[in-house]
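User: Modeling request: complex.
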Amino acid sequence: MLSIGEFSRACQVTIKTLRHYDKIDLLKPAYIDAQSGYRYYETEQVPQLLLIQRLKRYGFSLAEIQQLLFTKDKCLLAAKLSAQKNILEQQLAQVSVIMYELEQHLADFERTGDIMSYQNKYQIVLKETEDLAVVGYRQQMSVDDFGQAYGKLFERVAREHCQPTGPVMAFYHDRVFDPDNSDIEVAVPVAAGQADHVISGSLCAVTIHHGAYASMADAYGALTAWIDDNGYEVIAAPYDIYWKNHQNGVSNVEQWETEIRFPIAKR
Amino acid sequence: MLSIGEFSRACQVTIKTLRHYDKIDLLKPAYIDAQSGYRYYETEQVPQLLLIQRLKRYGFSLAEIQQLLFTKDKCLLAAKLSAQKNILEQQLAQVSVIMYELEQHLADFERTGDIMSYQNKYQIVLKETEDLAVVGYRQQMSVDDFGQAYGKLFERVAREHCQPTGPVMAFYHDRVFDPDNSDIEVAVPVAAGQADHVISGSLCAVTIHHGAYASMADAYGALTAWIDDNGYEVIAAPYDIYWKNHQNGVSNVEQWETEIRFPIAKR
DNA sequence: TGTAAAACCTGACCTTAGGGCAGAGTCAAG
DNA sequence: CTTGACTCTGCCCTAAGGTCAGGTTTTACA
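Assistant: Request completed. Predicted assembly structure:
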């Protein structure tokens, strides 16, 4: 039998945390003195708490841990651990990309003495686009669910025996920005006869974003500011064209290229 | 002039976030209509908000970002960015270690079918230790401030021309566990004449922990449970001996070795 | 056995960076 | 003038505990 303080020291966990776990029914003391309210733990609970702390390190939330401890199906449990490993892998990749961004930024800053200088790299051009026949797949989704949408689009492309004539695009039909409930259409250009609908050509403000998607807001910002400053207004859904991507075989994120188009007209 | 909705779309930031930044004085709209309360932003504020989002990606808190934007000293600013880069690097290393832990755990689990099987690796032995003459440096500190303490200890060792006769150790004098306010003493064994004080030998429960320090709680837990189960009690501050470490040239975390000793006596 | 220190209890409020909702006011187009 | 889109304030909520305040219990020692 261990008092809460002994148990806390044994597992390197604060007393507050133990009381919290008691309250949310994640780990109840083996015995509570009815009169004093003191909590006492068995030595067999030590490995249980250590497992909880370990799962926490893996990145599971306490609610998820509760589920996991309850899971009797060993395959399911292993699958969840495996899934978490993939999530950690993704995190690792994201942090690497951000570190690269930070290094570039720091270099720009030390060269120019201007903390904003990294933003000058967007060259904005006016372009008259042609009509574009596409097959599209449109849905309310999180911006992180792109992968899924790609999948569904290409299922359809395969089913209808279409031949894509250019790289994948994404249209942003939203009126309000909401990252996990966006009205996005992914599309590929196809021959006119096979098309779903046609994007009418128009005057567009265009720029090219180099690198990962985390910093694409920079390009959007530069474009929107330019459009407002030059007396234009946006007249249709802006869209991205993914020229260089892991999908077309460019694995090095730093070499990705995305064209961003805002259909515009004079105000 | 951009309405809050336009500004939000331009920078890919939710309206709620913009109102929050207004409230905490991080980014105030250029103009607020006195009668309607509507917020309006200038296009020049777009790069400002984009910078804020970027610093947020780097891992700064909003409070830190406020400080950074206020900082006029460019060297200081560059230093803070650089420091953040180091923090990201550390995070990267930590996540790698955790992924390795997870992989090992998953392998153990799939081999044995027991989610706890990873904990059976601690062999606990009883050992009668000798008196130990040491030079130590004791302070209230966070468990993450070990590096600092090492530094101070070795400054002193150098100043007093002591010759360490063994690897570094750490004593945990705390009665309550509190990770960022721990009463820790780092020490090295020296020749008897040069010693600061002497650690009396006693019966000890001992085990060896292999690998990174994140999972050392497992070893503590195993020891404490063993001590309680076998009718002993802890009679002095437990301590670690860092046999293999980055300090003695073992860079591969998986090969680190730490001996953990709990001075005990029959209850 | 008495007392003081150490350990433990509950409960209320605080943290980050916003999200969700209700209810009301405002703007722009037809 | 109406309708729909847009925006406002204000209140409560999140995860995983941390930080008091004020009171009770246990333990160690004289």
